[in-house]
Amino acid sequence: MGSGAKPRYEWLILAMMALSYFQVQFHRISPSPLIPILMDELGLTYAVAGLLSSAFFICYTSMQIPTGVLIETSGVKKIVLPFMALFASGAVVFSQGRDIGTLLAGRVIMGLGSSVIWVSTLKLISIWFPVEKRATATGLANSAGGIGSFMAYIVLPFLSATMGGWNTPYLTISSLLLITLALLALFLKDAPAGLRPDEESSLGNWSIVKENMRAVFAVKDFRPFVVASVISGIGWSLILWMPKFLVDVRGLSYVNADLISSSITVAMIPGGASIGFISDRLKKRKLPLFLGSMMSTALIVVFVALPTGSSYVLMGFVGFVVGLFWSTWILGFSMVSEILPRRALGTGLGFYNMCNFIGSIFAPPLLGALVDWTGTYAAPILFALSALVVQTLIYIFLVKETYLRNAHLQAGERRSQA
Predict the structure, then answer these.
(1) CB-based contacts of 245: which residues, under 8 Å, 6+ apart?
(2) What is the pTM of this model?
(3) From the CB of residue 167, how many other CB atoms can be counted at a distance below 10 Å?
(4) CA quadruple 310, 312, 315, 321: dihedral positive or negative?
């Protein structure tokens, strides 16, 4: 951190962006616990219900490279504030949805508005935090997202059941975005005072955008991360369908199905916070990344194979352990940050984040369509699990360790703070 910044101000920056990401994840995941209710209310097919997730990711994903470019040329704050306002408006539109058209419109607007938050968070972490704390800070921000996902599974079904519908509680929750927007407007800063100009040389300089993109795509070690991240969206889409799977196949109520499904996301709270810390202390990224991918895939097999009538405690426990190991996915962002040129980091992180959600565009309706066509969940589960196996093999055989590549950055930061 630069010497001109207030002590510990980096943690205030992280807290505000973590709060923003908490809300992004809450609204991003909200169709999953609401799908059983919306399918009953509106008579949706499985494929159309899957579009509620895809509609969000179409705009979210397509904006990731532009987000990186905008951040590098205009700065974080100038981009985050208007997009956060757009995000809030989309949440309000969705809360008023009583037909599929309004719901899809709200999801598209939310996807566009929220598209800048995660990459902006990663960019700020790379500026405000020293190298040895970046994976920890990234893990903490991701844990905030895990809390948001967990709260969506718990709060929405409960309030929907107790308040006679989901629209009013969703509108009330959406209004909280305005508080976050005010905090960002008042306290968010792009960089510490005294940051060396060459570290942010892209600001206001559109002429080097193409050069930055070429620099990103020239990094050969970046390419396996791209392929693996596209595949990961397919696996995550399977988790989004878990509440409906538990209702249809295991005979659970909506509330109980959402509660058990939330065990996966709630585990990402301690998982996301701890994996960055563990990785920083081990000084290894690849080992926890591929072990987490391998174990989470195996445990999803166990979860879906549990027989009807299994205790809720057992299902919740297996789901929780799935979420713990799934949390290692966040290390991909730390690793990408360590292999890309610093001047092009915003563009690179935007592209990588986009790849993480490409699978989330086509996979939810595809998995739903497979249920419509076959009448069972066997085909979508097999498809998603096969994708996760391929992802694990990429991590094992194609991804390289990145931690030691931080050494020159650490030395540079120490010199800048001297």
Answers:
(1) 304, 377
(2) 0.76
(3) 15
(4) negative
